[in-house]
Amino acid sequence: MNSTDVRAGRGRRLGAAIIDFIVTGSVALAAIWPLGIFEHQEAYEFVQFITRLFALLCGSYLLVNGWLLYRNAQTVGKRLLGIRIVRHSNDQLLPFWLLLIRAFAVLAVMAIPYVMLLALVDVLFIFTPKRRCLHDYLVGSTVQNVVAGNA
Predict the structure, then answer these.
(1) DSSP secondary structure, 2-63, as one string
(2) Is 20 within a domain?
(3) Which of 16, 27, 29, 119 would be a feasible disulfide site paired with 109, CB 3.0-4.6 Å?
(4) What is the pLDDT of residues 34-68, one digit of tens each?
């Protein structure tokens, strides 16, 4: 990596993902009891369970990270580790609708059975020289370090 390369390192991206998983998962778990999402036995039927779990994860992700994504192209984890999501072509912030597609793609491959293998493939793309995951290619994004003047 040269001194002008502002692409986020693999370690920072992993750290941000772990922080986001902990924060978002905590919010989702905290919402289960008051919302009564899994109160009845029929709530654990496979399709209904997956649908509710996916909706809960999406909702908590947007609740926790929505404003930060819109304003600074950062989740809580990315903000703490000084990285952000930008357009690959011009380093500009992504429009919110592309951030939503990106978030949905990441959550979908983690929450939908039989598609979860795609999550592993998605993550393995970080080891290519461009350090872009499949979801980055999907919406034309890259993750870069926040540099002075671009914050």
Answers:
(1) -TT--BPPHHHHHHHHHHHHHHHHHHHHHHHHHHTTT-SGGGGSHHHHHHHHHHHHHHHHHH
(2) yes
(3) 119
(4) 777 666 666 666 677 777 777 888 888 888 888 88
